[in-house]
Specification:
By secondary structure, the protein is of the alpha+beta class. Helices cover about 35% and strands about 20% of the residues. Strand 1 and strand 2 form a beta hairpin.
């Protein structure tokens, strides 16, 4: 096992929390490309340099701490949801930094560290690692717009002359990402560690219904082209039509709704909303897309409305590398005998993209109450340290 320092690890983790601290518990607000996000990355770059790594920002703002020569890459992301927890992503970055530092102090093996930019999807789906892995082009990403109308191209320019070229992925032998589970399984079963077997696939797009804005007091119900009612009808029909298609683990979400003009006395004339669905089966994801598009077309036609589909973003399900996963499993048994499990990931992670380039594996630690993407997100310190120790055991064995 590499000589990791749990106290140093926890200190760094708490120091990172200062950037974008919400004032509510341990929560943070550090969305991609905001001032707290950029300041956090500058701080991380200094810590990487102190650890003997070479900091390198790529064109989209992803930060690498590079070891010399060929190395194992570890990390996650340090941006957060607008109302996020202090561990989502940040844990994987700081744990990787501590393992890299310990490996260097012990004379090997070489470990590099990464904090990918915009994993949380301000501009899409895991944007930074997606561009690096070739799931989308930089030109395509530059055209993406966030819900407030900001362009990706303009936001990444905030890094200025910090940015260099994209890092050559062939310098890495594999990628290991530690993360909080973001679900209740480990916490509810008393588990200490989870070794991921696969990550579900995801599809994500924006849609809009266009009706007729009108007076809410004088427009008869039968003559209205109410955009909100179209969305409500669409949502109801989806529940019915998915019933014989989805599995118990399938999920779908209408998560962002923008109603126009959003006034109490006006029949809304337009609604733009996000549609996201996740499953471990690629064919099922495609079948759901067919149902979504057909149902939206039927609702629009029946109500005399226009319908627009935005670009489809998404990633296919990914199976973890057997060799890296095996190393984590053996380390988990050594660290927490009988208190670990193999499990799927229902959340999306940068590992999905990186798997296009190299072998990947993931390790989970419990989320208290299964809560994430919320200021209340937390994990017991003992579990955080167990995760760190598990990584240190696995990396030492891989060497």
């Amino acid at each position: 096992m590499l000589p990791v320092d749990p106290a140093r690890f926890l200190d760094d983790l708490n120091d990172l929390r200062r950037f974008g601290a919400s004032g509510v518990g341990k929560g943070v607000s550090r969305p991609a490309f905001t001032e707290p996000d950029i300041a956090a990355r500058d701080w991380l770059a200094s810590r990487m340099a102190e650890a003997g790594l070479t900091p390198h920002f790529d064109p989209v703002g992803s930060l690498f701490g590079l070891a010399e020569g060929r190395s194992l890459l570890m990390g996650s992301h340090s941006d957060s949801q607008p109302e996020g927890g202090w561990l989502d992503g940040a844990l994987g970055v700081i744990a990787a930094l501590e393992v890299a530092r310990a490996a260097r102090e012990a004379g090997g093996p070489p470990v590099s560290v990464v904090s990918f930019e915009d994993e949380e999807g301000r501009f899409g789906v895991t944007t930074g690692s997606s561009v690096w892995a070739g799931n989308q082009t930089l030109e395509g990403a530059d055209a993406l717009v966030d819900p407030a109308g900001h362009r990706f191209a303009d936001m990444r320019a905030a890094f200025g002359d910090r940015r260099g070229d994209f890092v050559d992925p062939t310098r890495f032998s594999g990628f290991v990402e530690m993360h909080i589970e973001q679900g209740p399984v480990l916490d509810s079963t008393g588990g200490t560690l989870g070794v991921v077997e696969a990550i579900v696939g995801i599809r994500d797009m924006h849609m809009s219904f266009g009706g007729q804005q009108n007076h809410a007091g004088t427009t008869p119900m039968a003559l209205r082209k109410d955009a909100f009612q179209a969305l409500a009808a669409f949502n109801g029909l989806l529940q019915e039509r998915f019933a014989n298609v989805v599995a118990p683990s399938t999920v779908w979400t209408i998560g962002h709704v923008a109603l126009h003009p959003n006034a109490a006395s006006i029949v809304p004339g337009r609604v733009r909303f996000s549609m996201q669905w996740r499953d471990g089966d690629t064919d099922r994801l495609a079948r759901m897309e067919e149902i979504i598009r057909r149902t939206a077309e039927e609702v629009a036609a029946a109500r005399g409305m226009t319908l627009d589909f935005g670009p489809m973003l998404g990633l296919d399900p990914v199976t973890m590398d057997a060799g890296l996963r095996g190393a984590l499993e053996r380390a988990a048994e050594a660290e927490a005998p009988g208190a670990w499990r193999v499990m799927p990931s229902g959340a999306l992670h940068d590992s999905t993209n990186v798997a296009r380039l190299m072998p990947v594996a993931m390790l989970f630690v419990p989320s208290i109450g299964g809560i994430s993407h919320d200021f209340a997100e937390d994990t017991a310190e003992a579990d955080l340290v167990s995760g760190l120790n598990c990584l240190a055991r696995a990396v030492a064995a891989l060497d």
